[in-house]
Structure to design on (159 residues):
């Protein structure tokens, strides 16, 4: 028996394209369903997607980098409003760590600061020179942690 064949040129051109679009739409719907099932419609972030603790490495190495080059500005990877500054002022690598937001306390997050290399001062969007203590404080619950193995971690999830 002969296979049925589309007669018009237009039908032979459109039907395979429409079938391909329908296939990919069905595939997207299935993948969306699987993702919704895995997420269980939860509003909480998963530690697989967004870890609650950011590992920074050796506290002693970071302290020496900050002593030489000044505080470290860590850029926000998701948006452009949550840049943070990591500073160390302690006598040992286990003490004196602080986190500030990378904008002045008297301005909003659109006024980012840049560190003056080799110092612990910053320049803001208006050209003012600022110290670390002039920067905005992070939300409650955001703080550095010196672990027992000498590594530094940052808890970046607010309370």
């Amino acid at each position: 028996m002969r296979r049925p064949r589309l007669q018009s040129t237009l039908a032979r051109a459109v039907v395979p394209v429409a079938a391909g679009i329908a296939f990919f739409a069905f595939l997207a719907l299935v993948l969306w369903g699987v993702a919704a099932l895995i997420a269980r419609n939860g509003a909480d972030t998963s530690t697989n997607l967004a870890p609650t603790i950011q590992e920074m490495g050796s506290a002693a190495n970071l302290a020496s980098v900050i002593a030489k080059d000044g505080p470290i500005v860590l850029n926000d990877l998701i948006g452009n409003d949550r840049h943070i500054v990591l500073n160390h002022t302690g006598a040992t690598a286990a003490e004196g760590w602080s986190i500030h937001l990378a904008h002045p306390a008297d301005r909003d997050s659109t006024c980012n600061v840049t560190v003056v290399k080799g110092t612990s001062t910053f320049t803001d969007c208006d050209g003012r020179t600022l110290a670390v203590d002039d920067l905005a404080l992070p939300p409650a619950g955001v703080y550095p942690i010196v672990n027992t193995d000498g590594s530094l971690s940052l808890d970046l999830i607010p309370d």
Observations:
- The chain has a mean pLDDT of 87.
- Residues 1-43 form one domain.
